[in-house]
Amino acid sequence: MICAVTAVSGHLGREIALKLMDRLGAGQVVGLARTPDRASDLGVEVRPGDYDEPDQLVASLQGVGALVLVSGMAPPDDRIQQHRNVIEAAKAAGVRKIIYTSIQGPDTGTAFSPVVQSNRQTEADVQASGPEWAIGRNGIYIEPDVEYIDSYRATGTIANSAGNGRCGYTTRSELAHAYAALAIREDLNGQTFDLNGTPITQMQLALYLNKAFGTDLSYRAMKSADFVADRTAELGAFIGPIIGGIYDGIRHGAYDRPGDFEAVTGRPHQSWDDYFADLAG
Ligand SMILES: NC(=O)c1ccc[n+]([C@@H]2O[C@H](COP(=O)([O-])OP(=O)(O)OC[C@H]3O[C@@H](n4cnc5c(N)ncnc54)[C@H](OP(=O)(O)O)[C@@H]3O)[C@@H](O)[C@H]2O)c1
Fold first, then answer.
1. Domains of the chain
2. How far is 227 from 8, CA to CA, in rounded Å?
3. Fewer Cβ neighbours under 10 Å: the N or C end of the chain?
4. Beta strands 66-70 and 45-48, pairing class
5. Which atom of ligand 1 is nearest to the CA of 175?
6. Are residues 172 and 255 in contact, defined by beta-carbon separation less than 8 angstroms?
7. Along the 281 residues of the chain, how does pLDDT read in single tens digits?
8. Which of 6, 8, 12 to mutate to test the pocket of ligand 1 (most atoms within 8 A of CB)?
9. Nearest residue by C-alpha to atom 20 in ligand 1
């Protein structure tokens, strides 16, 4: 059965396609991308796959048995319609199973909640679509904190509004391992899984970064409004409040979950000890 993955020009889609290649062989995997040139080195066939182009999607999904739909980046209302375009195209092309990369988080009460709600709507759309389905709800990526190390080093602190909340972070590599399993295993069909590692506090995150990078970071809790103002000044009026909303969710415990990673993959999520030891080299 051919497995297709959308958004293979992005980090997560690419990693999922690579994991599927390992398991199925390159001939059984097809990548879809809005910008196929960005995935030309992937090693599998890459077809056009713009979520705003329904006819193109139907053409590119011909012959595909299972489709991993990687969540898009558009504002919530646009994103719901984009995902519907993919789901409808999959149905029209005779795709037998849809796997959707959703997200964890609070449906209400934070500035991130509209994004979470849009993911929940796509979950409902996938479930009602007709083909078999499986859904993963991703924890928060840990990589952005690692990539931010120079900024953290410059101030000596990790400062945000998470407080003592624990966050079940994950990595794109571990998520890709799980999505390859969800695409291949038929016994997991019709279920939704939380995909994350062991929850940690921001103070623990600072200690892990210190060990990996030889820094001396400490954690400083900020008031929610101050953190939103800080993020908005750096990232703009759309993303700033959304980032603030994610950390409000962490503070409220929305990401403090054991997760279902082992049930999906047959092994535990990579430990943070191992992840940061690998980074230290
Ligand atoms: N769990 C988390 O912490 C977290 C954090 C950030 C995002 N996310 C979600 O996870 C998804 C994947 O993350 P990532 O790391 O792979 O993001 P990424 O590296 O930024 O990649 C985003 C991908 O979305 C594609 N895309 C955007 N608009 C599209 C459209 N109209 N049609 C088709 N493809 C489109 C991009 O294609 P182009 O190359 O053409 O731009 C790119 O391949 C994101 O899209 C977002 O929904 C999760």
1. 3-139+171-196+258-270 (3.40.50.720)
2. 33
3. C
4. unpaired
5. 1
6. no
7. 899 999 999 999 999 999 999 999 999 999 999 999 999 999 999 999 999 999 999 999 999 999 999 999 999 999 999 999 999 999 999 999 999 999 999 999 999 999 999 999 999 999 999 999 999 999 999 999 999 999 999 999 999 999 999 999 999 999 999 999 999 999 999 999 999 999 999 999 999 999 999 999 999 999 999 999 999 999 999 899 999 999 999 999 999 999 999 999 999 999 999 999 999 87
8. 12
9. 10
Nearest-atom index, ligand 1, CA of 12: 16
Ligand 1: residue of 34, 40, 103 to mutate (most ligand atoms within 8 A of CB) is 34
Residues 6+ apart with CB under 8 A from 30: 2, 3, 4, 5, 44, 45, 46, 47, 60, 64
pTM over 0.70: yes
Ligand 1 neighbourhood includes 7 CB (under 6 angstroms): yes
Nearest Cα to Cα of residue 141 among 168, 165, 160: 168
